[in-house]
Amino acid sequence: MRSLIGRKAPKFSAAAVINGGEIVQDFSLEQYIGKKYVVFFFYPMDFTFVCPTELHAFQEKIDEFEKRGVAVVGCSVDSEQSHWAWLNTPKNEGGIQGVKYPIVADFSKEISEKFGVLAGRYAPDENGDWVIDGAPVAYRGLFLIDKEGTVRHCVINDLPLGRSVDEAIRVVDALQHFEEYGEVCPANWSKGKEALKDTHEGVADYLSEH
Question: Which CDD domains has this protein been placed in (predicted)?
């Protein structure tokens, strides 16, 4: 699948659980356009082992995202009822109680497919029956979407590999630094470090417009 970088994030409307326990039926990322950046991340399944560590890690840093004007949104192929049950399960029992940011239900797997993170692919076998090649869950994809609804960064990990929440914050800082100062951020840059003036005429203007 072609990379989504520099393109508008795929649109969707789906059920989600918000505020740690309220189910809504028409959740969409479009509500944030013109208002907030979005870190939209996928995880494989509810009630697993690595996944709760990631969801709790995002919640623990939620103030850092909010002060940067970033909405954090999670998504998996589970139903909204499964999300609700997991959100009502205590952390010491493997649950994610205390997570308050929205968690989208991609039960049809259409959102995972649109974002290019579905670990399996459906295809007909020799008998004409549709079967899935691979796992019917989402890889650990993460997408940073700017206020215009454009994907500016993504990382996709295989199922066993948990992500760094601090790295997600660092990339937000890099994008916002570029937008504010027009300076590009070198390897291992972090907020407060020196960035680079763009020496290629027109590149900064082009990037800011796209």
Answer: PRX_Typ2cys (cd03015)
Please state, in angstroms and rounded to a whole number, the distance separating the CA atoms of residues 158 and 46: 16
The closest alpha carbon to 27, from 84, 85, 106, 135, belongs to 106
**What residues does each domain of the chain span?**
14-163, 164-210
Residues recognised as catalytic: 51
Query: What CATH fold (topology level) applies to the domain 14-163?
Result: Glutaredoxin (3.40.30)
DSSP symbols for 108-169: TSHHHHHTT-BS-EEEE-TTS-EEEES-SSB-EEEEEE-TTSBEEEEEEE-TT-PPPHHHHH
DSSP secondary structure code for residue 181 in this structure: H
Cα–Cα distance for residue pair 130/55, rounded to 1 Å: 33
pLDDT tens, residue by residue, 45-101: 999 989 999 999 999 999 999 999 999 999 999 999 999 999 999 999 999 999 999
State the Cα–Cα distance between residues 14 and 25, nearest whole angstrom.
6
Cα separation, 33 vs 146, whole angstroms: 8
